[in-house]
Amino acid sequence: MIICQRVKRGVVLALATSLMVQTASAADRPRVALVMKSLANEFFQTMADGARAHQKEHMADYDLVVTGIKDETDIMAQSKLVGQAVAQHVDAIVIAPADSKALVPAVRAAIEKGLLVINIDNRFDAATLQNANIHIPFVGPDNRAGARMVGEFLAKSLTAGDKVAIIEGVSTAFNGQQRTQGFSDAMSSAGVTVVSVQSGQWEIGKANAIASAILREHQDIKALLCGNDNMALGAMAALKSAGKSDRVFVVGYDNISAVKSLLDDHRLLATADQGAGQQASTGIETALKALAKHQTQNQLGDEIRTPVSLVTK
Length: 313
Description:
Blueprint: H1 2-28, E1 31-38, H2 42-57, E2 63-69, H3 75-87, E3 92-95, H4 104-112, E4 116-120, H5 126-132, E5 138-140, H6 143-155, E6 163-168, H7 174-190, E7 193-199, H8 204-217, E8 221-226, H9 229-242, E9 249-251, H10 260-264, E10 271-273, H11 276-292, E11 303-305, E12 309-311
Parallel strand pairs: 1-2, 1-3, 3-4, 4-5, 5-11, 6-7, 6-8, 8-9
Antiparallel strand pairs: 10-12
């Protein structure tokens, strides 16, 4: 009986010791929050999947919290997500901001609480960061160069003097601005006239309404250049309704799975792949390296470029 009790006490002690080691190990792991834009957009679902896959491969290295907003333009909701990450005592935030200026106060508050912040996808406005007296490194592609590649491919199917329109993303988002500039660069070089630039807010429905209005106003339009594939889907639906699917070219940006069949049958002429998952994993790795080196926000680098490539049939 005495031996049996000693064995039981030994087992309990061993289990307790093991649990304490596991708890300590978990406490030692840094926590990283990935804060994204609309999870209704397939691009950000892919980004989330990439982040989770990276964490699964490095489970012993860090814990991951993945969040996102429902509406691409819900700045207040995304600001709250940043505040929640602070309240959850994460060590770093990797954020794709819905707005390049309006999210700066939220991330500044996080930095003042001692968190590291890494910017991916949509770059924060440099002047706004400077006015806030904070430095945030950017991890992501050259959106202007990517859009120019798409526009140059489209230009091969156009003639100088043709008219086209650009349906851009959120007008205050830096990546949206850069894609519009890239499209414009390509059209200018080809001698093609951009007759309209309007915001579809990154969304299918809004882009559909914008495209329908453009088609009514400009009967001789030759192409619609869309700042993301969601808006390209909306534009193609408008073309179908107007009976112009075979007369107006459409290009997009993001290479989401929903457009792959459309590329194959030329309903979508081209798009750009900017590696959503890679942006997330590179942003997380940047944060983890900085945490391992005990770097402060101001000691972080300025920029890490990730690839962007042209995608056609």
